[in-house]
Design a protein that fits this description.
The chain is about 35% helix and about 25% strand. It has about 160 residues and is α+β, with helices and mostly antiparallel strands. The termini are far apart.
């Protein structure tokens, strides 16, 4: 059973682990889990759709397959800092970042993370839920450009 107030949720006929697996497998958002070393262990159909790699291609690969080259150094610095300390500066607000598709194109993403820990509290890896926000980002960029053009025209 999932949710912060489990007493208010009745267990259905399905096993909750099976239900969770079906939700993760079928969601259109990307759900990715990488181990402590940043090797991809879980890659759902949403990740396939957004990034272009099949689950078979992504399994065991480094997160570098989705992190643009110019962002890799800071990504790995932050990754290993989180693995060492268990602390992240990313809270409830989604993080906006560019992602790399299989074809080399860039996608605008928003994502949230959760750390998975073992029984001793050591981080085993990080799961991320990612959403393609490219259309919204492009609309906002076009709107900002149009506002700048109108302001420049007013001042002329």
């Amino acid at each position: 059973i999932f949710g912060p107030n489990r007493s208010n949720v009745r267990k259905g006929t399905m096993d909750s682990n099976e239900t969770a697996a079906r939700i993760v497998a079928g969601t259109q958002d990307a759900v990715i889990y990488a181990d402590r070393d940043g090797a991809i262990q879980l890659w759902n159909v949403g990740a396939e759709r957004i990034f272009g790699w099949s689950a078979e291609e992504a399994a065991g690969e480094s997160l570098d397959i989705i992190v643009p080259e110019k962002h890799r150094k800071p990504h790995w610095r932050g990754w290993y800092r989180v693995m060492d300390t268990g602390l992240t500066r990313y809270g409830a607000d989604p993080l906006a970042v560019p992602g790399l598709r299989k074809d080399g194109s860039i996608v605008s993403l928003e994502f949230s993370i959760t750390m998975l820990k073992d029984a001793e509290g050591r981080i085993e890896g990080i799961a991320a839920i990612l959403r393609d926000v490219s259309k919204r980002w492009n609309r906002e960029r076009a709107l900002k450009k149009r506002v700048e053009e109108l302001e420049a025209a007013q001042q002329a």
